[in-house]
Amino acid sequence: MRNYHIGIVLFCTILNLSAVAQQLSVNGLRTEYRSNPMGIDAAEPRLSWKIISSRRNTMQTAYQIRVGTDSAGLSAGKAVVWDSGNQKSDASVFVRYGGALLKSGTRYFWQVRIKDNHGNSAAWSTVNSWHTGLLRPAEWTAQWISTSSADTVAGPSPIFRKVFASEGKVKSAVLYITAHGLYEAQLNGKRIGNDHLAPGWTSYHKRLLYQSYEVTSLLKEGQNAIGFTLGDGWYRGYLAFDRRRDFYGKRLSALVQLVIEYTNGTKKTVNSDGSWKYNTGPILRSDLYNGEIYDARLEKGDWATANYNDTNWKNATTIQADKEVLESSISPLATKHEQFSVLKVITTPKGETVLDFGQNLVGWVSFKLSAKAGSYIQLEHGEVLDKAGNFYDANLRHAKQHVKYIFKGGGLESYEPHFTYQGFRYVKITGDLAKIDPSSFKAIAVYSNMDPTGTFNTSNPLLNQLQHNIQWGQKGNFMDVPTDCPQRDERLGWTGDAQVFFRTAAFNMDVAGFFTKWMKDVASDQLSNGSIPFVIPNVLGSNDAGSTGWGDVATIIPWNMYIAYGDKEILATQYPSMKGWVDFMTSKSKDDLWNTGFHFGDWLFYRPNDDNDGRSAITDKYLIAQAFYAHSTQLLVNTARVLGKKSEEEKYTELLDRIKKAFLKEYITPNGRMVSGSQTAYVLALNFDMLPENLRPQAVDFLVRNIESYGNHLTTGFLGTPYLCHVLSRFGRTDVAYRLLLQETYPSWLYPVKMGATTIWERWDGIKQDGSFQTTDMNSFNHYAYGAIGDWMYRVMAGLDTDESAPGYKKITVAPQPGGNISHAAAELETLYGLAVSDWKIENGFFKLKVVIPANASGQIRLPGAANASVTEGGIALNAIKGFGKIVTSGKDMEFSVGSGTYQFEYPIKL
After folding, report:
1. I need a surface site. Which of 196, 535, 667, 694 has the fewest CB within 10 A?
2. Can you state which reaction this protein catalyses (predicted)?
3. What is the pLDDT at residue 242?
């Protein structure tokens, strides 16, 4: 009996210890936004973690980090190279490494433990790591290698190889690699990494990224072989509209450095040099715009293995190229994601065979087929079918998007393209195959490898499809740079498109690394006078720069990255670029009025039939310029304040006051009307606080009357659309915002949805109501800019937002604004602190709201229509629950603060 009682006590003790352990733990470790990253070149990497707690109102009160170079030793508290000691702080994101100077090519392991405000201590976390790249240019001992002569035409892709010996037991092996062009690398016949279109796209003469790959598992004792294939890519392939090639150079080349560390402490480095051999293989042509020609009869077998006979191969040529521009890759490269089977096989009215994959996507088609040697299959890619149901690709302009495969014969052959990608839903099949088996084909989505972070859904199926289209527009156009479109002869990093979409993008996916990289490109290509090119990387020239709403990418994205992620470093890094853009606008202004130069204006705004009443939704381009001039100056003021630049904060605050006064004098009548009476004019004036408070109510009235005069349709273009619903909600007209959002006829967000769109269109009426198309010169069916409405749906409709006083979702705002006969809306976002949720529904006359605030964050809740209601949380009257902040009423709403935890609010509502 005594043993029985002892057993019971031990069992209960274990249960209690387990409960304590479950109350507080740490996971989600990240170094510079990434888990176990390779090639970090930051001198003091920033470390972040997430806190898991089963208790409400949990805040971190202290942390301790330890770093070492041996995982097992670190876990045992040994071989520690830095110990932060016990730091009394609630910081759990962007905590800087503070130890000794980091060494190149070294893996560092780290873990963290914390304490919370309830007196709990978490155990040490699991061990995470980061690996440093080559931190100094002199550490690159490899040589650039190329073929013996430059090829200025689209020709075969060269392949290179090198045999080397590995002597001894390998502790680690890391490959550092980059190229002028695109590369695919192999070690002993195995592909290295999952990245595609590497090393990505930058202004190569200013910044060239290299990648670092852990390849230890691919090495074997004795003879090994390393090899790579090169493609034209952005470096020397076709770019932009006028069929130009060789923008960055005419010669493909690569730089390869394999560092092997043995368990006995010795190292061996295998460098690219003149001893490498090269040949050409089966890729006869591969171009980003025009597709690929692949002749399987020319395959070289196991050419990247040690036993391959390369006697007839030529020696590589070493060339001189700058290593000072090399930087470690910080952004996610393109990888393969979703796969789609053929939805149906179509025989068109023209008698052509077309595969329908059911989704407009970006990537390529893979297949497994058999055919006799010398026969071929050609895949032609298009986004839509025409009015008659025939394959359509006229909107691609000069881009071909053709993939041709020539069979070697002898059995089943597998293929997918290498240095190209296509934007498509439909694929026309031509060639020698008599019969097509649809199960032999797969469409593979390819885009930058960003983790999904946000979800959004409602009770309205059309809005859910709109959200789907927004997400797929982002996936298709985030291909190392944020492109305008992924299919025609353009695919450029248009700055205006990117800035209007950023907040939406940051909800859908983790875009921190993606935009950190691209904003460095913006600063790199910024002109000496501070002007920002229309596209980044700039392949259009120095004259194609300086347009309002496009150049403002220099201020808008860094500030919004700070708001979305709480990252002050992006502000510090981009501050000179931000300041340069504002100073450029100032230099072009007279009496504080910017009314010079070329501007795109409110691009692709709705143009009604002027035969009816002689009006059009044209907004004065200089009015727009002045509004964005003020906005960028305001963001620069905000940034100077965050960075502690007091004198510059005061300087630009004074400038901002003068800009707004000049705006009022030039564009506002004494009675408060604007010289442009368009929706965009009023939206920008209201959104950027260009009007004194006494003129704002009538400006809102003018805006609403304008919307109603168009039958509750929007008339805005690229620059007005992102702010339209936000302005209406801010000034108490969420009802009108819902009318616009739920409008199903042209022009509206849901018109393309009703027309069968699976992505966002470039034009409001890319396909007209009669089935005909807009102009072939500019009619993309995968263009994310108008998807910026997602930001309003997440932050206002679902009500999930971050407080700018504690950015990065350290303080979370939950303030849903229901309307439009929507009975349910939910947004979930994986923040740097953990999952945040705002999920509301109206059911049987009750408003029910689920809120999740992650540990180490707090929330501010605003319950719509709850001012005089009996509110419960978890079935208990709100005023009977401890732990909430002071409950106050604001109009019809109720507000209060909460700590972390999951909450279920419910109350009767009349809306």
Report:
1. 694
2. Hydrolysis of terminal non-reducing alpha-L-rhamnose residues in alpha-L-rhamnosides
3. 83
Residues 469 and 438 in one domain: no
Annotated catalytic, 221? no
Task: Round to whole Å and give the CA distance between 722 and 797.
Answer: 15
* Domain coverage including residue 423: 334-448
Region 474-496: mean pLDDT is 97
Over residues 74-78, mean pLDDT: 92
Nearest to 217 by CA among 195, 188, 196, 194: 188
Report, as an integer, the average pLDDT of 829-856.
Answer: 98
Digit-coded pLDDT (tens) for 305-347: 999 999 999 999 999 999 999 999 988 999 999 999 999 999 9
> Where does 575-697 show beta strands of DSSP type E?
none
Q: Which of 32, 762, 828, 873 is catalytic?
A: 762
Same domain, 322 and 338: no
The catalytically annotated residue of 184, 383, 490, 830 is: 490
Last residue of a domain, one of 102, 131, 160: 131
Catalytic annotation present for 762: yes
Kindly state whether residues 752 and 839 are assigned to the same domain: no
**256 shares its domain with 108:** no
Residues, the chain, total? 911
Q: Which residues pair with 164 in a beta bridge?
A: 224
Cis peptide bond prior to 461, omega within 30° of 0: no
DSSP track, 222-247: EEEEEEEEEE-HHHHS-BTTTTB--S
Full-model pTM: 0.96
- Cβ-in-10-Å burial (0-12, 13-18, 19+) of 528 comes to exposed
Say whether pLDDT at 294 is over 80.
yes
Is there a single domain that holds both residue 123 and residue 141? no
> Which residues are CB-contacts of 6 (< 8 A; sequence separation ≥ 6)?
none
Per-residue model confidence (pLDDT) at position 152: 53
Q: Are residues 320 and 379 in the same domain?
A: no
